[in-house]
Design goal:
Length: 346
């Protein structure tokens, strides 16, 4: 009986006439490659080196940016959740920089890329030509930086060029008062949208983390939600379930039909943006997005005097970021500095 063909060959050591070989099956045929040694320990080291080469994508002789982006996408696929976002960024980068070599990327090239992307606007059938924010351009530049670092690690290139990005946009100040939240919930009768709003407000999680949340991550015994590890610098946290949230979560759990917490018509929800926008409009609110709920959660905690370190843990952010973005909402913000000036009046 012939050996079944394997999509992924299994490599092993074999000894023939006192010499060691790497052996594997290619369809019905056994293949061998000499390791050039009779010493078993040397053969083991050579096998590890051979496997490292097999697992790594072959490096082009003179890789272009397009080659590096393609290799980076292939490496990230199946390992990160936001692969679609990476693919979108790489498509824009390919269009304007794909034919260049890494050593062609200079400060001037980076600036021209940003200018061209602003003039071009959004890509894709639904948003083509619409205004493009600097935040999107920054995401694309960050993706290029990550791809070039990957190419260095894979030894495709020796060094990665420095790439200039536009200045980071100012942090959005918009957050909701408790009265505004009540207005929003009052006009939200759709269960999955209402549950999303409450999860965002009471846990401060990002939209992607909430939409990916599974019921096995909700621990009713310990009263905690484990949002997982996240990816890159988008860290996620384990947060407690407050009584108001526990009640609505328990109600949703009793009627669930899927493993995902946020479900609609028996299926997972890929995007909440449209439904949320309609509820915001019905509530008569302005400049409110799903991410505004995360800002609101952080702002409410800081206004109540919760230490920056605790807020940072709750949101999965750095303490510096919390202090920089939300510090001015704290009742004790700069109070010690102001107190130090007391008593100097004549």
């Amino acid at each position: 009986m012939s050996r079944p063909k394997s999509a992924t060959p299994t490599y092993s050591l074999c000894n023939r006439g006192g010499k060691y070989y790497v052996q594997w099956w290619d369809g019905k045929q056994s293949k061998r490659l000499s390791l050039g040694t009779t010493d078993r320990e040397e053969a083991k080291r050579a096998l590890r080196q051979f496997l490292a080469g097999v697992d790594s994508p072959a490096a082009p002789n003179c890789p272009l940016i397009s080659d590096i982006l393609a290799g980076y996408i292939q490496d990230r696929t199946g390992r990160v959740r936001n692969i679609a976002s990476i693919q979108y960024a790489c498509a824009a980068l390919n269009e304007h920089l794909g034919d260049l070599r890494p050593d062609h990327i200079t400060t001037q090239v980076s600036r021209k890329y940003a200018q061209k992307r602003r003039a071009q606007g959004r890509r894709g059938a639904t948003g083509h030509g619409k205004p493009l924010s600097d935040g999107t351009i920054i995401k694309e530049i960050v993706t290029l930086r990550a791809a070039l670092r990957w190419a260095v690690n894979e030894r495709w290139i020796q060094t990665a060029p420095k790439i200039e990005a536009p200045p980071s946009p100012h942090a959005k100040e918009r957050w909701l008062t408790r009265a505004e939240v009540k207005r929003l919930l009052d006009v939200t009768g759709t269960p999955h949208v209402r549950l999303f709003i409450q999860l965002a407000l009471y846990t401060g999680a990002r939209t992607s983390a909430i939409l990916e949340l599974q019921w096995d991550q909700v621990d009713f015994e310990r009263n905690v939600i484990n949002y997982g590890t996240g990816s890159g610098n988008k860290k996620r946290a384990i947060v407690p379930i407050i009584p108001e949230l526990r009640e609505v979560l328990w109600e949703a759990a009793t009627i669930r039909t899927r493993d995902c917490v946020i479900e609609f018509r028996g299926g997972p929800v890929a995007s909440i943006r449209h439904a949320f926008r309609e509820r915001v409009k019905a509530a008569g609110l302005q400049d409110v997005t799903p991410h505004t709920l995360r800002h609101t959660c952080a702002t409410w905690m800081v206004m109540q005097g919760v230490p920056f370190e605790m807020v940072a843990k709750f949101l999965g952010n750095s303490v510096d970021m919390i202090e920089r973005v939300y510090g001015h909402h704290s009742p004790d913000w700069l109070r010690k500095a102001a107190t130090a000036l007391s008593g100097f009046a004549g």
